[in-house]
Specification:
With about 350 residues, the protein is α+β, with helices and mostly antiparallel strands. About 30% of the residues lie in helices and about 25% in strands. The chain contains 8 helices and 16 strands. The chain has an 8-stranded mixed sheet. A hairpin with a 4-residue loop joins β4 and β5 (about 95-105). α4 (about 110-120) crosses α5. The protein starts with 11 loop residues before the first strand and ends in a 21-residue tail after the last helix. Bound molecules: the ligand C=C1C[C@]23C[C@@]1(O)CC[C@H]2[C@@]12CC[C@H](O)[C@@](C)(C(=O)O1)[C@H]2[C@@H]3C(=O)O, 2-oxoglutaric acid and fe (ii) ion. 2-oxoglutaric acid binds near residues 214 and 281.
């Protein structure tokens, strides 16, 4: 078995480009077509008029800033990210690191959030757990709408084929709060960027969260107004995503790439910590239950487009994810060989 590790290219180029913008207030059939197109072309899009109120987002953001504003020993009381808890610089268990601190929480257990909030927000644990639970519920609703419109746009008759996985009581979704500290004055590279910008050893590049794909079904990300997120177009070309605190950035994860037989793409992205201000992002990773069998609906398998991936469970996939580095490709390992007889 050969592992495709994506080594960074020596010369990187930044290309200015806007992501597709999906307006939830537009006609549903138009919205679902646009979502499908964006998921095929970029695996990323922004959603505006998503219906998550400013209050819900503000309350969550207040809790984030309060948590990350604490001293390190206080933050460590949340427990080490194993995989839920607080982490700083170290990412995962296999030697990855970046200029980021974060808090990961599991989402399908309000009691565990309440228990955790006793150490995360001891001054007012109820306020913290309420803000988190209300936020997660609202974001999951957006994710379900997106997943249902994806199925509609793909012509899959069972329109809940994707969304039912994340509403299952045993879903394994998680919430990750990321805080990228601001640049220190002596890190400043001063000259204004011109596009395409050649990044080399002389203009310092601070990776916040290194390049990777998200393993789950779908990610819904909200960030403050500070830039940092970039998506890869391959061959060392990176597209910075302009920050919009009123929008939600949605991206396809590995499981959805498998479930759409490769029609939707789980795109490599990263977050830079090059700003003079702190970037704060809140990512809701929509994941299936452990026992869920990941296969694509039969309508997405045709003679011209035979099955690309073998069936697997989320438990099996997650085990592989955590055994590898951030930038390793994992879905490759689940590809059917062309001479495989069983194309399930
Ligand atoms: C290095 C790692 C961190 C990660 C688990 C992994 O072994 C490989 C994937 C990483 C990632 C990326 C998306 C999400 O932020 C995350 C929570 C996930 O599900 O996969 C992280 C994992 C992590 O930080 O624990
Ligand atoms: O902070 C960001 O903008 C991206 C974070 C991310 O990609 C992740 O947490 O998986
Ligand atoms: Fe990500």
């Amino acid at each position: 078995m050969v592992l495709a590790s994506r080594a960074p290219s020596s010369t990187e180029k930044i290309r200015d480009m806007e992501l597709p913008i999906i307006n939830f207030l537009d006609k549903r059939s138009d919205v679902s077509k646009l979502i499908v197109k964006a998921s095929e072309d970029f695996g990323f899009f922004k959603v505006i008029n998503h219906g998550v109120s400013e209050d819900i987002i503000r309350n969550m953001e207040v809790e984030c800033f309060e948590f990350f504003g604490k001293t390190v020993p206080e933050k460590q009381r949340a427990g080490l990210a194993n995989p839920y808890g607080y982490g700083s610089k170290n990412i995962g268990f296999n030697g990855d690191s970046g200029e980021v601190e974060y808090l990961i929480m599991d989402t399908n257990n309000p009691l565990s959030i309440f228990q955790r909030s006793q150490t995360i927000a001891s001054a007012d644990p109820t306020r913290f757990s309420c803000a988190v639970n209300v936020y997660m519920e609202a974001i999951r609703k957006v994710a379900c709408e997106v997943l249902e419109m994806m199925a509609e746009g793909l012509g899959v008759p069972d329109t809940s084929v994707f969304s039912s996985l994340i509403t299952d009581l045993d879903n394994d979704s998680l919430l990750r709060l990321n805080h990228y500290p601001p640049l220190l004055p002596n890190h400043d590279t001063s000259s204004a960027p011109s596009f395409p910008l050649q990044i080399n050893a002389t203009n310092s590049k601070r990776i916040g969260f290194g390049e990777h794909t998200d393993p789950q079904i779908l990610t819904v990300l909200r960030s403050n107004g500070v830039a940092g997120l970039q998506i890869s177009l391959g061959d060392g070309v990176w597209v910075p995503i302009s920050p919009d605190p009123t929008a939600l950035c949605v991206n396809v994860g590995d499981v959805l790439q498998a479930m759409t037989n490769g029609r939707f793409v789980s795109v490599i992205h990263r977050a830079m910590a090059n700003s003079k201000q702190a970037r704060m992002s809140m990512a809701y990773f929509c994941a299936p239950p452990f026992h869920a069998n990941i296969t694509c609906p039969k309508e997405l398998v045709t003679l011209e487009r035979p099955n690309i991936y073998r069936a697997f469970t989320w438990a099996e996939y997650k085990k592989v994810v955590y055994s590898l580095r951030l930038g390793d490709s994992r879905l490759e390992l689940f590809k059917l060989q062309s001479d495989d007889e069983t194309r399930d």
